[in-house]
Predict the structure of Thioesterase superfamily protein.
Amino acid sequence: MTSVWVDQRFRGPERSGNGGYVAGLVGTRLAAELNGAFVPQVKLRMPPPLQKDLGLSAGNAGAQLTDGDELVADAVPVDSDFLADATIEPVPAEEARAAEAAYRGLQGHPFPNCFVCGPENQGGLRLKPGPVGDGRTACTWKPAADLATDGLVDELFLWAALDCPGGWTIDLEGRPSVLGQLTACIDARPQAGEECVALGRYLGEDSRKTFTASTLYDAEGRVLARAKHTWITVDPAAFN
C-alpha cells in the first residue's frame, strides 16, 4: 500500500478528481504488474476526493484506490482484445486544429476547471476536442515539460488525455456525464512539446450509460494509446 494525493490541479468537477487522471493512477499501477496479453480496466466507484491521502495497492490480480474504508476505484486485468476496435482512424493535425474552433466546452462547460479539457484550468492539458463528423472529435495536444520524465510524457498523463476526447462525443449539455469506467493501453510515450492528435468516437448508449472510444497519435501518425470508456449521466450540480 502506498499513499497518493490528488491535487486540486487534477480536478474534473470542482470537488473531485478528473476521472482519466485518477483512473491513470490505478491503471498504470496495475499495468506494471501485467504482461502484454492483458490491459487494465478501471472502475470509478465514487467521486475521487481531492487534497487528501488515499491508499493505492496492486498485485497481478488487480489494484485498489481507497479513502480509509471506502473504495474510490479499482482495476482488473482484461484481455487486450477488448480494445481491438478502439483505434480511431487518424486525421491530419491541420484538421484536428481546425476542429478546436468548434469545441463546445469553450462556452457552457459543465466542469470548466477540468484538468484535461477545462478552459479555465491554467495548469491543465487544455484539450479542445471539436467535432469532425460521424460521431468523432479531434484536437491537438502539445504536452508540457512538467508532464514528462527524461523527456518522455508520463503514462499517467496519457491516461488523462484519453479521457475527454471520448466524453465530448456526447451531448454533454443535454446529457451531462462523468467517467465511470476506463480501459486503456499505452503503446508508446511522446516527447514533451511534440504535437499529438487526440480523437474520440461515440459508440452507443444504454439508459444512463454512454460508450465511447479514444486514440492518441504522435506527430508521425503512430498510435500512442487507445481507450474505451463508459460514462454515467449525472446532475452536474451534485459535483459542484
